[in-house]
Amino acid sequence: MKKLRIAAVLTAALMTAALCGCVDQHPEENSKAESGSVTNADDLRIAATSPAVADICDKLDIDLVGVCSSTVSTIPDRYKDATQLGTAMNPDTEILASLDLDWILSPSSLESDLQPKYAAIKTKSAFFNLKSVEGMYKSIEELGEMFDRQEQAQKLVDEYTSFMNKYKNKNKGKESPKVLVLMGLPGSYIVATDNSYVGSLVKLAGGTNVYGDGGGQEFLNANTEDMETKDPDIIVRCAHALPDEVVEMFNEEFSANDIWKHFRAVQEGKVYDLSYEYFGMSAGFDYPQALDELQPILYGDQS
Question: Across all residues in the chain, what is the average pLDDT?
């Protein structure tokens, strides 16, 4: 039985325990603002450690003094002069400490790794729930309250509500296809459940994840024999990072591992690589484009 080999970086980044709230706040000892206080963002020094979080801050008209660096995602132009903090998974705490920050904002998927580091430099932190579109907008509402950006937040929420009211019945009455969702890095891959962002998009588009909610987990380590028993109609593959290398890895795996030839989805040519731009680890404002991409994959048309 061939077991999937999970790289250490995937284990650390993807198997983090699920966060219960939307924005989890951590007021640290000797931090500058009082816990639960509402302060206008214009009066604060704030850093965002992921591209998705920076995008949200941009939409909320929040200035940042520090942002992460990224070679695959675009940071909003308004932050071109902000201090570079390093990558989203490993921001430089020495640089963070030097910025005399009031708040550090990060995605909740990295909370268990990053929150102790922020506590060590005695800086308040808040973690966005970006595991689903709904979670993102709930976080936006709470951040609007925290930083006196209620008007901007409400505008974003209203746009989301309007979109969902139009979209919710798009595939009503159509048979829901069974979907196996794989998330990979070069050399390793795991199963994404409904609790992951890409899984939530598949569910929102009307697909049925063959692993469901994974017992509350975002990602599962499953072997190919077990995947075969799920008999998916469709297999979608996406990348946690390095998308070109991941596509190459998946192609080699599906060619070299004989068991994939027995999957009905493979036999029928229903294996698809999703765009890294729209199907990353964190929810973003391009979810309508992601749903547009899934529509013909799941239903064979653009209707």
Answer: 88
C-alpha 213/C-alpha 219 separation (Å) is: 9
The DSSP call for residue 30 is T
Kindly state the tokens that stand for 212: 């469901």
Nearest-10 crossing angle of helices 133-146, 51-59? 60
pLDDT of 273 higher than 70: yes
For the chain, what percent of residues have pLDDT higher than 70? 88
pLDDT tens column, 177-192: 999 999 998 889 999 9
State how far the Cα of 8 lies from the Cα of 34, in Å rounded to an integer.
Answer: 37
Round to the nearest angstrom and report the end-to-end CA distance of the chain.
41
Tokens of residue 27, six digits: 């007021």
Within 10 A of 166 (CB to CB), how many other CB atoms are there? 9
Contacts 24+ apart (CB under 8 A), 294-298: 294/201, 294/202, 294/205, 294/207, 294/236, 295/170, 295/205, 297/234, 297/236, 297/272, 298/171, 298/177, 298/179, 298/202, 298/205, 298/206, 298/207, 298/234
Q: Which residues pair with 178 in a beta bridge?
A: 208
d(CA 33, CA 202): 40
pLDDT band at 22 (very low <50, low <70, confident <90, very high): low
> Do 10 and 240 contact (CB within 8 A), yes or no?
yes
